[in-house]
Amino acid sequence: MVYEPESVWEFSTTGNITFGLGAAEELEAVVQEYEATNVLVVTDEGVAEAGIVDEVIGPIESGEYTVYDGVEPDPALSTFEEAREVATEVDPDFVVGIGGGSSMDVAKTTSIVHEHGGDILDYVAAPTGRGEDVPGPGVPTACLPTTAGTGSETSPVTVISLPDEDLKVGISSGYQRPNVALVDPGLTVSLPPGPTASSGMDALCHAIEAYVTRRYDAKPAPASRSDRPDYNGRSVLTDQFARSAIEHVGSGLRDAVNNGQDLEARRNMALGSLMAGISFTNAGLGATHAIAMAAGAIHHTPHGVTIALTLPQVIRHNAASAFDRYAEVAELLGEDTSRASPGDAAEDAAVAVERLASDVGIDGGLSTLGIEEDDVVHIAERASTLERLLAGNPRRVTKTDLEEIIRRSI
C-alpha cells in the first residue's frame, strides 16, 4: 500500500478565552449567558480553603450552586466517580472547574458523563476501558485555572489515575474542551513557590515539545476527518503559540517563584501556560511526557518536577533530529547561540532548562524523587506503551532509548 502523508492541519481550542486581571469576575456574566440556574463547582480543598471559590462564586445570583471540593492531585478514578455522583444528585445545567489541571479535568469529564451517562471507563481506550467515543457535548463548562502550567483549560484530554494498577489513562475528545476559559493571573498569586515552579516547568515543556514535535505533513493521512488525532502535528500556527509561550515562561518563572505578588510575572506565566496549552493540545508532546506519565503512575512522583528533571536529557537525545529547533529554544530562553555549532546550540537549550529549573529550586535528578536504577526498566516499559505521546517525538525512541534517558536523568 502506498504511503499517503497528511496534507492539512487542524486547529481547535476552547470555545471562548477571556484573559487578564479580573477575568474571573466575569463568571457571573458567563453563567447568565448560558441561562444556567444550577451550577456545580468542582475544585480541591486547598483552593476552597484559600477563599478563592467563595470569591469567584459568591457573586453569582442567577441560581443555586453546589461545591464539590474532593479533587486531589493526580485524581483517581474514584474521585471522578464521586464527582459524577454529586452531579447526579444535583443535576447541574452548568459546570465550573476551579483549580489546577486535576480539578479542571474532573470538571470536564463530569460534564460529559452526566450528559451522556455510562461509566467513566466507558470512554477510556481499550484494553483498560471500553473505548467508546464521546457522543456529543456535555453540560456547558467553564474552567478557571489557579496554576500556570497544565493548560487543561484548553485541552480535550483528561488524565485519570488507577492507583491499584500503577496506571494513568485518559479520555480524549474535542467535546471535552471547555466552552469558556477565564484565565485570571490574579487567581495564581496565592500559589506557593514550589507548585509555581513545578507547574511552570510543565508549561515550558509543553511549549518545547510542541515546538519540536513532528510536523503535520510528516505523519500519515487519516482515513477520514473524524479519524484525525487530537495531536495532529506542529503547524505554522502552533509554532507561533509555542515560541511565545517559551519566551513568557522563560522571562516570568523566576520572578513568579521568588515574589508571588509580582503581577507582571504572574501575567507572563498565566499567558505562557495558556499559549503552551493551545499549542501542545494541537501539535502534540513527546518522550518527556511519556516518561513523566509512567513515573507518576508507578511512583506517584510530582508531574512538573519529574518533567523538569527529565526534559534536559530528552533534549540531548532528540537533538540530532531537531538541531535548528532546539537552537531557537535556547535563544528564546536567552542564550546566545550566534557562534555555536548546531550541536552546541541544542546543548545550550538543555543547559538553559537545567539552569531555569535550578533557579526555581528544582535540583538534582530523579533520584531525589525516589527513583533508582532498579526502577528504570519498569518505567521505560510503561512509557514505551504511550504511543499517543511518543508518536510525535522528533527522533525515534525505543524502549532502550527510554531506559538510557531515564538512567541519565537519575
Automatic annotation (TrEMBL):
The keyword Oxidoreductase applies. Residues 16-185 form the Alcohol dehydrogenase iron-type/glycerol dehydrogenase GldA domain. The keyword Transit peptide applies. Residues 237-409 form the Fe-containing alcohol dehydrogenase-like C-terminal domain. Pfam families: ADH_Fe_C (PF25137), Fe-ADH (PF00465). InterPro entries: ADH_Fe/GldA, ADH_Fe_C, ADH_Fe_CS, Alcohol_dehydrogenase_Fe, HOT. It catalyses: (S)-3-hydroxybutanoate + 2-oxoglutarate = (R)-2-hydroxyglutarate + acetoacetate; 4-hydroxybutanoate + 2-oxoglutarate = (R)-2-hydroxyglutarate + succinate semialdehyde. GO terms for molecular function: alcohol dehydrogenase (NAD+) activity; hydroxyacid-oxoacid transhydrogenase activity; metal ion binding. Its EC number is 1.1.99.24. It comes from the Archaea. Keywords: NAD, Oxidoreductase, Transit peptide. Transmembrane segments: none annotated. Belongs to the iron-containing alcohol dehydrogenase family. Hydroxyacid-oxoacid transhydrogenase subfamily. This is hydroxyacid-oxoacid transhydrogenase. It comes from Halorubrum saccharovorum DSM 1137.
